[in-house]
């Protein structure tokens, strides 16, 4: 996906997430955390600051909540502490990208043995 497609997806998800919080019959609902489709699952983690992180994976993949929390930790360590990063802008941080790739590879190895 290019940057515009990512922004459209994020905008659509943000709207659905906000509407689901308002329409939920459960008090204290935090919005949609998992969207299951025939060909993929979309997991969402919303931080306390409101920043949302997504993982798109094969249907039924386990432990994505843990991976999302690791991604959030990497975000706080490498992006938020970067003096050149501006909030609400696309993330362009080499250290974040490198550590994110390592975390995903580690998660893939632990899940699939590959």
Provide tags for this entry.
114 residues, alpha+beta, Beta-Lactamase, three-stranded antiparallel β-sheet, 49% helix, globular
Number of domains: 1
Distance between the termini: 25 Å
Proportion in helices:
40-55%
Radius of gyration: 15 Å
Q: Which structural class do the helices and strands define?
A: alpha+beta
In the CATH scheme, the class would be Alpha Beta
- Tell me the major beta sheet: 3 strands, antiparallel
Number of helical segments with 4 or more residues: 3
Strand order within the widest sheet?
1-2-3
What string, H for helix and E for strand, traces the elements in order? HEEEHH
Total beta-strand segments: 3
| CATH fold-type name | Beta-Lactamase
Please, what is the average pLDDT? 87
Low-confidence stretches: none
Percentage of residues in DSSP E strands: 5-15%
Question: What overall form do the CA principal axes indicate?
Answer: globular
CATH architecture: 2-Layer Sandwich
């Amino acid at each position: 996906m290019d940057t515009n497609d990512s922004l459209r997806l994020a905008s659509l998800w943000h709207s659905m997430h906000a509407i689901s919080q308002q329409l939920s019959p459960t008090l204290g609902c935090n919005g949609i955390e998992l969207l299951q489709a025939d060909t993929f699952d979309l997991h969402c983690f919303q931080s306390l600051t409101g920043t949302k992180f997504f993982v798109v994976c094969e249907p039924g993949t386990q432990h994505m909540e843990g991976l999302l929390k690791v991604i959030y930790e990497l975000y706080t360590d490498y992006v938020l502490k970067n003096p050149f990063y501006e909030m609400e802008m696309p993330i362009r941080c080499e250290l974040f990208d490198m550590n994110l790739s390592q975390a995903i590879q580690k998660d893939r190895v632990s899940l699939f043995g590959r």
